[in-house]
């Protein structure tokens, strides 16, 4: 059941009505209906993995309490490492086992030892990377005594399994979400209205931008060996907007619908393609994951405290781990590595925190430089996305090689029976809207909101891609 | 909460109005178009007179060279549609009758497409703009599972089939951008030879196909001479006895599967190239129009 499906359009209003009209007595009944809805929502993918979700929830709930109760440090450590090992073990088995087995076998074959890897025939449970990270952050925070353990299982389950964020984030923190589920939520019209606006804008990003770009990006990436430079350049740009529209659209829908239940989730995107350097891009892209890695990996590794060599080492570690988090493929690791390389000059020049505020442009010379910085950052990002999207490292290098050597810029008719340039106008229109409203969470609220909402509805209906359905990219992670 | 319910009701009204207005707009545009494809070319036409009309899938579209009929003094048009099934071929013929076409002969390619009665979504959808303005289209779709949604929910058909009748296609109709579908009397020639010539059709089983039956009935009712033919496959096809099975059900379908065998004449295993199509059409003309 996807957020942009007909079944979800039925599911969400039913949950809304039950939540506010039937189960609105106290926070326990509110949480209970949200838990039931969340488990139902999750079981729509594959009910068997519901057991995994419940087990993972119970594991972190129980170990959290045991860590807090433990009087001896050794006992605390035992429960802590038990939770970490099991959580990462699940992730390892379901997500990474085949990758490691296959890579190891390939390496042995390289040394002349003929082996065939023993691969597991399992599908990746949807959202496992997200709910595992929820649980990990919770257990780590208790272990580091940043938070108290949660003794109410329903409340804790809701923190892990809340359906708007269950399958693709944002990756919530116990410090942010748990306090909200510990109190009864009262209906707030303004918040609900903002929620509807944000959900609608998320839907525009998904069905109008992402899914439309996907048909072109797929046609170009899947046939890159016969594409010219113009098509390949456009293919990278289309994929950049596909993944942005897809994931930030999903996040907007999650945040928007959550507001309907009176719960605020962490913001996940903040107009990343208007970034002036890669450091700024990573402060604006998938914010909940970046900050997770910062707090639970970069800082524990020593962060920026140990001098330049340690900073560089830690930066490479978090980018490589971040790449690997996305998927068990060398392409994701290469993508992480490239981003670390982009980051390196900023780190060495100590300019990685120079663009903290939202960009603005005016008619002067310094704005030309800012504009150039935005364009060059976007171009670098697109180049890295090629690795993210390609089926293999070899394909990515072939793609880039052709991009820079073919040097033909004619229009090309693609496999999807469309010309390569056809989406350029739509992309420019989208950029113009985002630029104009970059100081807001979404562009609909504010002046003329009804007019803007109507335009969005028309855009969804008239320009959306519905027949060639694309599931959310981040569901596979 | 009352305020929110009012707010939500307003959005619902806007959405319904949007759907209704867009439905009207798109439909009006499609009702004016006649140069985008074979379906609108027929739908938005005045009565025509043909000696030969060709119907079927790509194995008709790429195999019957229209100008060879014309050279013989026969007014012909190839209405074969790539990707189409007999569901669409039957509806196309019904539309022609509704438009009062005078047709002497219908050649229908009836072979692999006899194995199913499903509609081909990409082609069938192109009839949907006319579902409210043509009784023939309405009736033809009336037994489909999603008929109620397609017929009663405004704009649903344009949403569901946005790739074929969505905004992009509507815009191209609105701006009168022609396609090459109607060139060469509807015949689309395939060039060259794509290499590997093999196919496996063992999974296909011919059935008593209701849309083929419809075509037979329409032709009989309108005194049209029906020529049903099976067209060539490359020799390296597993399950070529399929064509004999077709004849067991329908003895009247002429088996031309093996009249062209050399791979040189095929673009792909199921499709003749331009040279093969010329050879094949010449044989058909010799056999039926001499």
Automatic annotation (TrEMBL), chain A:
Recorded GO terms, molecular function?
acyltransferase activity
Q: Name one GO cellular component term.
A: plasma membrane
Asked if the record carries the keyword Cell inner membrane, the reply is no
Keywords (A to Z) from UniProt: Acyltransferase, Cell membrane, Membrane, Transferase, Transmembrane, Transmembrane helix
Q: Which GO terms describe its biological process?
A: alginic acid biosynthetic process
Which coarse location class applies to the principal site listed for this UniProt protein?
membrane
Which compartments is it annotated to reside in? Cell membrane
Q: Which InterPro entries match?
A: Ac/AlaTfrase_AlgI/DltB (IPR024194), AlgI (IPR028362), MB_O-acyltransferase (IPR051085), MBOAT_fam (IPR004299)
Is Acyltransferase among this UniProt entry's keywords? yes
Q: Where are the transmembrane segments?
A: 6-23, 78-98, 118-140, 332-349, 370-388, 419-437, 449-467
Pfam families reported for this sequence: MBOAT
Q: Give the bilayer topology.
A: Multi-pass membrane protein
Identify the PANTHER family for this entry: ACYLTRANSFERASE, PROTEIN-CYSTEINE N-PALMITOYLTRANSFERASE RASP
**Its family?**
Belongs to the membrane-bound acyltransferase family.
This chain's protein is named: D-alanyl-lipoteichoic acid acyltransferase DltB, MBOAT superfamily
The protein's organism comes out as: Flavobacterium segetis
Automatic annotation (TrEMBL), chain B:
- Supply the name of the protein: SGNH/GDSL hydrolase family protein
Q: Which organism is it from?
A: Flavobacterium segetis
């Amino acid at each position: 059941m996807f957020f942009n499906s007909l079944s979800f359009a039925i599911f969400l209003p039913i949950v809304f009505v039950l939540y506010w009209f039937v189960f609105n007595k106290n926070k326990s009944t509110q949480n209970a209906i949200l838990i039931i809805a969340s488990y139902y929502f999750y079981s729509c993918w594959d009910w068997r993995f519901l057991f995994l979700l419940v087990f993972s929830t119970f594991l972190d709930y129980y170990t959290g309490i045991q860590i807090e109760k433990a009087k001896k440090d050794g006992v605390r450590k035992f429960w802590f490492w038990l939770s970490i090992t099991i959580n990462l073990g699940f992730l390892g088995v379901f997500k990474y086992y085949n990758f490691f087995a296959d890579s190891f076998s390939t390496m042995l074959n390289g040394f002349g030892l003929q082996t065939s890897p023993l691969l597991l025939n399992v599908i990746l449970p949807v959202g496992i990377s997200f709910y595992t990270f929820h649980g990990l952050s919770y257990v780590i925070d208790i272990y580091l005594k940043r938070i108290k353990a949660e003794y109410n299982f329903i409340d804790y389950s809701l923190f892990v399994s809340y359906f708007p964020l269950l399958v693709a984030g944002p990756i919530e923190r116990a410090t942010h979400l748990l306090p909200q589920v510990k109190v009864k939520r009262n209906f707030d019209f303004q918040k609900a209205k903002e929620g509807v606006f944000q959900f609608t804008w998320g839907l525009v990003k998904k069905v109008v931008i992402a899914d439309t770009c996907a048909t072109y990006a797929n046609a170009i990436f899947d046939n890159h060996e016969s594409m010219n430079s113009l098509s390949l350049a456009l293919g990278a740009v289309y994929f950049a907007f596909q993944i942005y529209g897809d994931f930030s659209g999903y996040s907007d829908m999650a945040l928007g619908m959550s507001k309907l239940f009176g719960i605020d989730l962490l913001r996940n995107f903040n107009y990343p393609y208007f970034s002036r350097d890669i450091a700024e891009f990573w402060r604006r892209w998938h914010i909940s994951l970046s900050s997770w890695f910062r707090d639970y990996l970069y800082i524990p590794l020593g962060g920026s405290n140990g001098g330049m060599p340690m900073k560089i080492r830690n930066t490479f570690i978090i980018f490589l781990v971040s790449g690997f988090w996305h998927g068990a493929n060398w392409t994701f690791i290469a993508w992480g590595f490239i981003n670390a390389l982009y980051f390196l000059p900023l780190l060495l020049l100590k300019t990685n925190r120079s663009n903290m505020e939202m960009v603005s442009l005016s008619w002067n010379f310094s704005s030309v430089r800012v504009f150039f910085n935005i364009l060059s950052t976007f171009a670098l990002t697109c180049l890295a996305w090629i690795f993210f999207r390609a089926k293999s490292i070899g394909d990515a290098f072939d793609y880039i090689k052709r991009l820079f050597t073919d040097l033909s810029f004619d229009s090309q008719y693609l496999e999807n029976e469309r010309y390569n340039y056809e989406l350029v106008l739509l992309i420019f229109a989208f950029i113009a809207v985002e630029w104009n409203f970059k100081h807001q969470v979404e562009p609909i609220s504010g002046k003329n909101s009804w007019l803007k909402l109507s335009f969005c509805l028309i855009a969804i209906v008239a320009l959306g891609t519905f027949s060639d359905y694309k599931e959310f990219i981040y569901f596979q992670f | 909460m009352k305020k929110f319910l009012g707010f939500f009701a307003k959005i619902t009204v806007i959405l319904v109005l949007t759907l209704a207005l867009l439905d009207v707009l798109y439909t009006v545009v499609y009702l004016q178009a006649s140069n985008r494809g074979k379906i609108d070319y027929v739908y938005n036409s005045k009565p025509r007179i043909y000696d030969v009309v060709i119907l079927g899938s790509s194995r008709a579209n790429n195999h019957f060279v229209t100008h060879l009929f014309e050279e013989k003094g026969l007014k012909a048009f190839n209405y074969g549609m790539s990707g189409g099934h007999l569901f669409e071929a039957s509806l196309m013929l019904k539309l022609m009758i509704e438009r009062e076409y005078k047709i002497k002969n219908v050649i229908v390619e009836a072979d692999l497409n006899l194995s199913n009665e499903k509609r081909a979504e990409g082609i069938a959808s192109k009839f949907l703009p006319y579902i409210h303005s043509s009784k023939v289209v309405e009736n033809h779709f009336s037994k489909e599972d999603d008929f109620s949604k397609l017929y009663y929910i405004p704009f649903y058909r344009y949403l569901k089939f946005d790739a074929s009748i969505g905004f992009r296609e509507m815009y191209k109709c609105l701006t009168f951008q022609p396609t090459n579908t109607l060139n060469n009397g509807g015949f689309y020639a395939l060039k060259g030879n794509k290499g590997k010539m093999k196919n496996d059709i063992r999974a296909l089983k011919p059935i008593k196909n209701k849309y083929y039956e419809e075509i037979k009935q329409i032709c009989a009712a309108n005194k049209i001479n029906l020529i049903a033919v099976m067209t060539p496959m490359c020799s390296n096809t597993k399950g070529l006895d399929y064509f004999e099975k077709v004849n067991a059900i329908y003895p009247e379908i002429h088996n031309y599967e093996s009249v062209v065998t050399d791979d040189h004449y095929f673009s792909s295993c199921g499709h003749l190239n331009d040279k093969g199509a010329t050879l094949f059409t010449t044989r058909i003309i010799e056999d039926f129009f001499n």
